[in-house]
Amino acid sequence: MSSNEELQNTNTEERFDFKKEEKSAFQTEKGLTEETVRVISEDKGEPEWMLKRRLRALEQFQEMPMPTDWPGQPDLSEVDVAEIVPYIRPDVDVRAGVDDWTELPDEIKDTFDKLGIPEAEKNALSGVGAQYESEVVYQNMQERWEEKGVIFCNMDEAVREHEEIVKEHFMTKCVPPSDNKFAALHGAVWSGGSFVYVPEDVTVEMPVQAYFRMNSEGMGQFEHTLIVAEDGAEVHYIEGCSAPKYSAFNLHCGGVEVFVGEDAHVQYSTVQNWSKNTYNLNTKRALCEADGRMEWISGSMGSKATMLYPSTVLKGPRASDNHITIAFAGEGQNIDTGAKVYHNAPETKSTIESKSISKDGGRTNYRGLVHIADGAENSSTSVECDALMFDNESTSDTMPYMEINESKVDVAHEATVGKIGDEDVFYLQSRGLDDDDAKQMIVSGFIEPITEELPIEYAVELNRLVELEMEGSLG
Amino acid sequence: MSGTQLPANLSTEMVREISERREEPEWLLEARLDALEALDDLELPDVIKTPGRRWTNLEALDFGSLVDPLNQADETERTSDEGVEVLTFAEAIEAHPDLVESSFGSTIDPTENYLTALSAALFTTGTVVYVPEGVDAEDVTVRAEMNSRSLFSHTLVIAEKSSSVTILESIESGGSTDAESRYFSNLVEIDAGENAYVQYGSLQNLAEDTYHYALKRADVGTYGTVNWIEGNLGSRLTRSDVESELEGDSAETKIVGAFFGHADQHFDVNARVWHHGENTTADLVTRGVLDDEARSVYEGVQDVGRDAWNTSSYQRENTLMLSDESEADASPKLIIHNHDTEASHSATVGQVDQEDLFYMISRSIGRTQARNMLVEGFFVPVLDEIAVDEFREDLRELIAARLR
């Protein structure tokens, strides 16, 4: 029986019965099954096509092997999807688990304290209730946007309210579930996230920030973000977990899809600081039409292991892409991140600027792919990686891959690794700073290319997070 | 091993015959038989994979039709300086049995991969260069001609304490064979002792029906230096790995590569260095030109170990593309475990500089001649690294001959 027939045979009544049965079984049974996926979809009241996509993604997930043979990749042997996945459908109990500030782990509470975040905001950041100030801001902004036809809402809501746009763009040509095992997993069990739609020639002047929403969903671990910027549109989206996210689960597997129309401009900024038991296995991609411009600004601070390579497909002539990434790995952390750019049209441009800091046995890796297709004449790309290391317990790798099929191009890759300059430290000490402050200042300077791209409050928070990492006081 | 065609008639008898004909000692026969036996479980050398593709398709090699173990033939001319012994492998076993036994397989494990094992089991030619303590030798040449469908070669260079030697090796094809394609395998092991200096240059200009595998690796002792020069012009497909293990403190290495591909040639060239000792220095320089539908794959690895304090490590790779149908893939890798390191790498791919071309044309140099001059100029930084005039001239001439 084909999966189509199977779906058609499942009438509503049967499915409801099914669901009741499954709900109890679901809480005890481990492993990701078709029933799990049906229950999720059912609960969300999703249209049939979305359920079909989920089930197809599930099939693909089950067919694909775990990535194991990437040179130097983080160890994922602990990631037992069979153990983790049942929990993605949060039952009331699980929600309650994060519902109370006092039940948060101390390390997370300390972090909030040290960041100087007020109590009300702490509650919001920890995933509890509404962050009322933000809500107000959100409401105000929402009205302004709505006048211009901008849509910004929760992804689950978008499936219901803006079905046609979502149906066209959701995990079809940008991040198909077949992209990788975790994209497939995401496609099967995704929940929550943001939907941003900017109509033709509309500029959203303020950055669209989404951290408060993602957290309130409580299921942010598999959130999906879909941004559609029509021709000539402009938007800056900030994925905000500028503080550690408390998570009952140890797998974060999100999906981000960005559609950059002709002459449109999208900036996507992330400052993430996952708790240090989290495996962060995300898939982020942008499709960029002629003259479109995509910018990825990412700060990866937390997690036990991260495998994340935001990618851009430059589809139309003169499309361009900039990546600025910074990774910080402390004790026990393995941050494997980079960028992927496909130059598929003439006169496309990309720049990648990657900075990493490793300390106390932490491990950072830049893994990047630049592909220049045959016919992408007069394209240029420049990749620059700088790594700063504190000790010989730490590791810093750079693994760029360049596939060049076109001769009329300009491709350059450059990477440097070094320790913190003793002379620089000495100079700052001679000006009265102590050793720690001197190093802190050097690191702040090192990451400046990122911070200057961010709105001031994010830049400040990023700096404070780095400070905390430097003190070794996180996790 | 899955997917690889073993030579149909490959057997222990055959390996015994190779060894007996050469009157080899028991240990070498055993080493050959061990390698043969290991073949079943060994994989081909790793090739770079990116989403959806393997950069070099070694699986396609049909060893069944490429390898003819009992009919290997070469003509090799060896010249040497005074004080240094340059011997055929067979002669060396006779003259220095213990030295050869202890050196064979000490830098390259014969069972490292499928191709090294095949080579260790079947090799019939090779050279042993023995430079005793304190001896300086400036001019050792090994010029080989391959005269059979397949040829397996194994070379050992033993440079004792405070010795120095410059070795030039070249390989080309002799008269054609009845086979459609040929296979040449070349393993080179260098053991450079304390304060020893070895420059090892290779020039490969095999006929373009030849598949070519080379693994060259050096162990470099304290204060030792091993400089490699690897020039690749010939062959249908070349997979070449040139590697230095900087074992001793203050050891140094330079790996200089040049390739020039045309027609549908495929070069998979790799330069790798491991910094184990303290205060070690490495410099990796590769320049390549691609024309027609030629394709290059480059991997450079700088691996700095946890105890490799005060390392300096540099890598540059530049590829010039003369044709739209060519393809240049590169992956320069830095693996750094010690923060007391100064390391950098860079890679570029591009075409002949249009402004330079315009300038020269405006000075009434014809377009083709101008382009050729720029290509020749592109190789200058690599040619400059070659200490021996004769070798530099050979490479320059081969490059010039390839330019139309």
Automatic annotation (TrEMBL), chain A:
Ranges in coiled-coil conformation: none
SUF system FeS cluster assembly SufBD core domain segment(s): 212-446
GO annotation terms (biological process): iron-sulfur cluster assembly
Region (Disordered): 1-30
Biased composition (Basic and acidic residues): 12-24
Polar residues bias spans: 1-11
Pfam families: SUFBD_core (PF01458), SufBD_N (PF19295)
Superkingdom assignment: Archaea
UniProt domain SUF system FeS cluster assembly SufBD N-terminal: residue ranges: 138-209
Family, as annotated: Belongs to the iron-sulfur cluster assembly SufBD family.
Name the UniProt record assigns to this protein: Fe-S cluster assembly protein SufB
Organism: Halobellus ruber
Automatic annotation (TrEMBL), chain B:
Ranges of residues in domain SUF system FeS cluster assembly SufBD N-terminal: 71-138
Region (Disordered): 1-21
Segments traversing the membrane: none
Superkingdom of origin: Archaea
Polar residues bias: start-end ranges: 1-12
GO biological-process terms attached to the record: iron-sulfur cluster assembly
Residue intervals of the SUF system FeS cluster assembly SufBD core domain: 147-378
SUPFAM superfamilies, alphabetized: Stabilizer of iron transporter SufD
UniProt xrefs under InterPro entries: Fe-S_cluster_assembly_SufBD, SUF_FeS_clus_asmbl_SufBD_core, SUF_FeS_clus_asmbl_SufBD_sf, SUF_FeS_clus_asmbl_SufD, SufBD_N
Pfam families per UniProt: SUFBD_core, SufBD_N
Family: Belongs to the iron-sulfur cluster assembly SufBD family.
Name of the protein this chain belongs to: Fe-S cluster assembly protein SufD
Organism for this UniProt entry: Halobellus ruber
Lineage: Archaea, Methanobacteriati, Methanobacteriota, Stenosarchaea group, Halobacteria
